[in-house]
Amino acid sequence: MIVVSAPSPSSDTGTLSAYERVNGTWERVLGPTPATLGELGVGEPEDDVFRTPEGTFPLGQAFGRKPNPGTRMPYFQATDEDWWDEDVDSPTYNTHVHAAEIDSEDAENLYDSGPMYDYAVVIDHNPQRVPGRSAGIFLHVTDGDPTWGCVAVDRDQMKSVLQWLDPSANPQITIGVGAGAPS
């Protein structure tokens, strides 16, 4: 379980800690480390609103511009043909698309977006792909600025998170105001 805690709903910064259950108790294994959040803080997800979704969500596909750093999560190395479709009118809304070009009004190139996607993992906050509930929310490397709704940490912490994640443990992330250790 990864826990991201913001001090207030409008805060664009917070902390990230990672926990694992050992003998029935949650123990912190990473963090706390500084995290950057959406420019508008945390709350209800909405397309084109730079807010980090609040709640508990599964962590899914991992990816990066760099080779797999040793994660056990499904991982692909992004090229200039990897996109995240954020077009609410597209049949591939809120999915990864691998293509030389994409017929979408709003798609983010996962390679050309720069070092923030050197390492990343999908925060699966909208698995039903409901248009309007936002798309393309990731845990990724920070560039020092508030995000468009993602959670970002420094490069070494992101690599550590990826190396620690294990899909067999059903990894999840909880994002909220004053979020604490899992109970």
In summary, what is this structure?
Residues 5-176 form the L,D-TPase catalytic domain. This protein is mostly beta strands and 183 residues long.
What report would you give on this structure?
It holds the Pfam family YkuD. Residues 5-176 form the L,D-TPase catalytic domain. Pathway: Cell wall biogenesis; peptidoglycan biosynthesis. The active site is at 140 (proton donor/acceptor), 150 (nucleophile). This is L,D-transpeptidase family protein. It is a single chain. The protein has 183 residues and is mainly beta. It has one domain (2-177). Helices cover 5% and strands 39% of the residues. The chain has 1 helix and 14 strands; from the N terminus they run βββββββββββββαβ. The chain has one helix at 155-164, and strands at 2-6, 13-22, 25-36, 42-43, 52-53, 55-64, 75-77, 82-85, 95-98, 107-109, 120-123, 138-141, 151-153, 172-177. Strands 1, 2, 3, 6, 7, 11, 12, 13 and 14 form a 9-stranded mixed beta sheet that branches. A 3-stranded antiparallel beta sheet has the order 9-8-10, with no helix packed on it. Strands 4-5 form a two-stranded parallel ribbon. Strand 2 (13-22) and strand 3 form a beta hairpin. The longest helix is centred in the last third of the chain and has 10 residues, at 155-164. The radius of gyration is 15 Å and the shape is globular. 39% of the residues are buried. The mean pLDDT is 96.
- Distance from N terminus to C terminus (CA atoms, Å) equals 11 Å
What share of residues is helical?
Answer: under 10%
The mean pLDDT is 96
The global form is globular
Oligomer: single chain
Helix-strand sequence: EEEEEEEEEEEEEHE
Number of domains: 1
Integer-rounded radius of gyration:
15 Å
The total count of helices amounts to: 1
- The number of strands is 14
Runs in which pLDDT lies below 50 for 5 or more consecutive residues are none
